[in-house]
Specification:
The complex is a heterodimer of chains A (513) and B (247).
Chain A (H helix, E strand, L loop, with lengths): L2 E6 L3 H9 L8 E5 L2 E5 L1 H5 L8 H7 L4 E4 L2 H18 L4 E4 L2 E5 L1 H7 L2 H14 L6 E6 L1 H9 L4 E3 L5 H5 L10 H9 L5 H6 L2 H19 L18 E9 L2 H21 L2 E11 L5 E7 L6 H15 L3 H6 L4 E13 L13 H15 L5 E5 L5 H4 E5 L33 E6 L7 E3 L3 E3 L4 E4 L2 E16 L8 E10 L4 E7 L2 E7 L2
Parallel strand pairs in A: 2-4, 7-8
Antiparallel strand pairs in A: 1-6, 1-7, 2-3, 5-6, 9-12, 10-11, 10-12, 13-14, 15-18, 15-22, 16-17, 18-19, 19-20, 20-21, 21-22
Chain B lengths: L2 H18 L14 E2 L3 H4 L7 E2 L3 E4 L3 H13 L4 E4 L6 H7 L6 E4 L6 H9 L4 E4 L7 H14 L2 E5 L7 E13 L4 E14 L5 E10 L30 H6 L1
Parallel strand pairs in B: 3-7, 3-8, 4-5, 4-6, 6-7
Antiparallel strand pairs in B: 1-2, 8-9, 9-10
Classes of the chains: A alpha+beta (513), B alpha/beta (247).
Chain lengths: 513, 247
């Protein structure tokens, strides 16, 4: 289990705005994307401005509100120097996104003599730098640590193993997946604890691998339970531009496809990327690289964001600016740490996810044809072969499966049932002791006692038998009506048979062994 | 100590050591492959007390034996597939505890049964197959490697070169049916297990079909005497209740 510290600078877009441009002091500030507020200053919040509010509503609450449009580049540009200075205190900082950075706590904790003192030292440093609201959270894994930082005043340490308990009352919105949160809300699941209580298999089935990963986070089973796996090198992806691109927007647009393929390649291997190295390579081989971390996992859009931020920062940094002076020729995405997704609880071996089971049967269908793989359900009927409804894999049975229990079928067979039911009855002969065929006359009167079975030429002595039991089907329709008699018999080898006599023809309806 | 007894003792020890699992490079005892549940009467006779994930088991021709072998894993939620056995009795399987929601059938794989089994072994926990053609040793060992990798269990109705164990039914005994009256009620049978590792045959009795109450609890049931049980008499003989209880 890896202990992790997350530093949080609240309302970073507002802070970045205030540090980079001249804004009226002591005025409430809100940062907008399109027409809605994405961040606001503490003063604006006191006046009633909230995230997600429309421009007009925000203005109504706070008439003196200073409005600015969001600029991710500005956010990153302002944040990276802060992180670089933090690195002098505690090396190994990972940027999650502007305003949020993570670090493995082991080193700093040893240096400062404990997790809480280390977190306090880093927060004190940030406060001295002019970030009075800086907060830190320490917990198992980045996700829990981020949640702790958001609730810290200014430092909150969640003890090892206490992640699940700490997360339980937190709202599902904190997972950052709006669609999932909405759906869970409709299901009556509003807290992470409630989400974690759902079965892992069901979550995987309903929400797919991404949902399963979030489910693990909600349960406090964050990433690094096992040592970070070195991902196989073929998962890295290079996107080359010819000629080199000089405008950040062009690069961001150009890598979108590549980023999607990169994520799809990981998902194919049931992996989620939690640490990503992005290398921007100039036409002369100069490299501007940076390591990015994510609390849950990188998707295509978040990778594009990181590349864009990195480009924005590169122009500010002398060395990177020189490397990329003639534009970007190649973007290389390398997963530095991955987590297994859709991981099953131990003991569920053989219970592969339904997705994989479906894949296996679909492959067999590709070999043998659609009707090559069948599922079975119980229908109605008297003959054993009629009672089974076989449906090709992937289709639903046409008639909803009626189980034999809730609908009595007169004349159906009492248990035990034959373990072998030939799809077409096998013709045989049943003879009496003197070799004449056994027949049934009117009123189920038997002509002679069955003494021998002839199955494909080989004769077997019958040691016990009973019957006949009449079997009448479709007696409402003379055209399809069938009359037959059933017998049970045990032969000398101990094999038991269900026999059918239709007219003068004997056949095997089922075998019991 | 005789040679045979010595060999039996050593085999038992080897089996015991193998069950503990191999000692990993780190010096820690690596966990052995997981073991899938199987009907208790059969589990007693198997070297791992169940079906070893990644193993192949050769079964006799009895359909009821196959159903019995599938019931416990299926009830435990493990996906099963039945390949090349078109007459598989679905309804009796359901009665035995097989979950129809987690089993699929490939009744007619033809010559491509081996490819089908290979594809299924990727993610299906238990694959039962009746080989349509003879399997070559090389093909069997390739499949065995995949089974081990994917922790799947193969149940073969027929011969198999690399089977963990061979299981067959002997000495079936039906109750309930008379001479022109009664109904089949229950079948008990002997199970013979020949393990690849222990060599010696192990025998036990199970309820193959019908109610699973304790063996021989109902002394009033008639037993049907069959030739296999050693009756050479030409005419059929139904044992009386008191004789059945005495035997």
């Amino acid at each position: 289990m890896e202990r992790c510290l997350v530093l949080w600078l609240p309302d970073w877009p507002v802070t970045a705005l205030m540090r980079s441009s001249i804004v009226p002091a002591h005025a409430p500030i809100a940062v907008l994307v399109g027409n809605s507020v994405v961040a606001c200053s503490a003063l604006a919040r006191r006046l009633g401005v909230r995230r997600g509010m429309r421009r007009r509503d925000a203005h109504a609450r706070a008439p003196g509100l200073h409005l600015a449009s969001a600029d991710p580049g500005r956010d990153a540009r302002e944040f990276l120097p802060v992180v670089d200075r933090l690195e002098q205190l505690a090396p190994g900082m990972q940027i999650i996104r502007p305003g949020l950075a993570a670090i493995r706590i082991r080193g700093p904790a040893r240096y400062y003599g404990g997790e809480a003192p280390a977190a306090q030292a880093l927060v004190a440093h940030l406060r001295a730098e002019g970030f009075p609201e800086a907060a830190a959270g320490v917990a198992d894994g980045r996700f829990t640590a981020e949640q702790a930082a958001r609730r810290a005043a200014p430092v909150l340490v969640v003890p090892a193993g206490g992640a699940a308990e700490f997360l339980a009352p937190i709202a599902v919105e904190s997972l950052g997946d709006d669609a999932l949160a909405r759906l869970l809300d409709q299901l009556g699941v509003r807290t992470l604890g409630g989400f974690a209580a759902l079965g892992a298999d069901h979550v995987l089935e309903r929400f797919g691998p991404t949902g399963a990963h979030l489910h693990a986070l909600a349960a406090g089973r964050d990433s690094r339970r096992v040592a970070p796996r070195r991902p196989p090198p073929e998962l890295a992806r290079e996107i080359a531009f010819e000629p080199p691109l000089t405008i950040a927007d062009q690069v961001a647009f150009g890598i979108r496809m590549g980023a999607e393929e990169f994520v799809a390649g990981l998902v194919d291997r049931q992996l989620a990327c939690t640490e990503l190295r992005i290398e921007l390579i100039g036409p002369r081989g100069g490299i501007a690289e940076r390591l990015w971390a994510h609390t849950s996992s990188f998707d295509a859009a978040s990778i594009v964001d990181r590349v864009r931020w990195q480009l924005d920062v590169a122009s500010a940094d002398a060395r990177s600016a020189e490397a990329l002076a003639e534009g970007v020729a190649t973007v290389r995405l390398t997963p530095e740490a991955v987590d297994p997704i859709g991981e099953h609880e131990p003991g569920l071996f053989g219970g592969a996810s339904d997705e994989r089971v479906h894949h296996a049967f679909a492959r067999v269908q590709a070999i043998l044809g659609h009707r090559g793989v069948l599922t079975a359900s119980l229908g109605g009927g008297r003959r054993l072969a009629d009672r089974i409804v076989l449906t090709p894999w992937g289709e639903r049975p046409i008639a909803a499966a009626r189980t034999g229990d809730d609908r009595p079928w007169p004349g159906s067979l009492p248990p035990p049932l034959p373990s072998a039911v030939p799809q077409d009855p096998i013709p045989i002969a049943v003879e009496t002791e003197d070799g004449s065929p056994v027949r049934v006359r009117a009123r189920a009167h038997l002509d002679g006692h069955p003494a021998r079975l002839r199955i494909q030429g080989s004769a077997r002595r019958i040691v016990a038998w009973s019957g006949p039991w009449p079997l009448i089907e479709h007696n409402w329709d003379p055209g399809t009506m069938r009359r037959a008699h059933r017998f049970q018999a045990v032969d000398e080898s101990g094999s038991a048979w269900l026999l059918l006599l239709e007219g003068d023809d004997w056949s095997i309806e089922g075998g019991y062994d | 100590m005789t040679n045979a007894a010595e060999v039996a003792r050593l085999r038992a020890r080897i089996e015991q050591v193998e069950r503990l699992g191999r000692v990993g490079r780190s010096g820690r005892i690596a966990a052995a492959a997981p073991v899938l549940p199987v009907a208790p009467g059969i589990a007693r006779l198997l070297p791992d007390r169940g079906l070893r994930a990644g193993g192949a088991y050769a079964l006799g021709r009895s359909g009821a034996l196959l159903t019995t072998m599938l019931a416990a894993p299926s009830a435990a939620g493990i996906w099963c597939a039945v390949v090349g056995i078109p007459e598989f009795g679905v309804e009796s399987a359901l009665a035995a505890g097989v979950d129809l929601e987690r089993i699929a059938f490939v009744p007619h794989p033809g010559d491509r049964w081996l490819g089908v089994v290979g594809a299924l072994a990727e993610s299906i926990g238990v694959v039962a197959v009746r080989p349509g053609t003879r399997v070559r040793d090389a093909e069997a060992s390739r499949l065995a490697a995949r089974l081990r990798e994917r922790h799947a269990v193969l149940l073969v109705q027929g011969a198999w070169p690399l089977a963990e164990a061979r299981l067959d039914i002997e000495d079936r005994e039906w109750t309930g049916l008379g001479s022109g009256h009664g109904l089949l009620e229950r079948c008990t049978a002997g199970v013979v297990v020949a393990s690849r590792r222990s060599g010696a045959l192990r025998r036990g009795r199970i309820v193959l079909a019908g109610a699973h109450d304790a063996l021989g609890s109902s002394a009033t049931q008639r037993r049907i005497e069959t030739a296999e049980r050693g009756s050479n008499s030409a005419q059929q003989r139904i044992e009386t209740p008191d004789r059945a209880a005495a035997g």
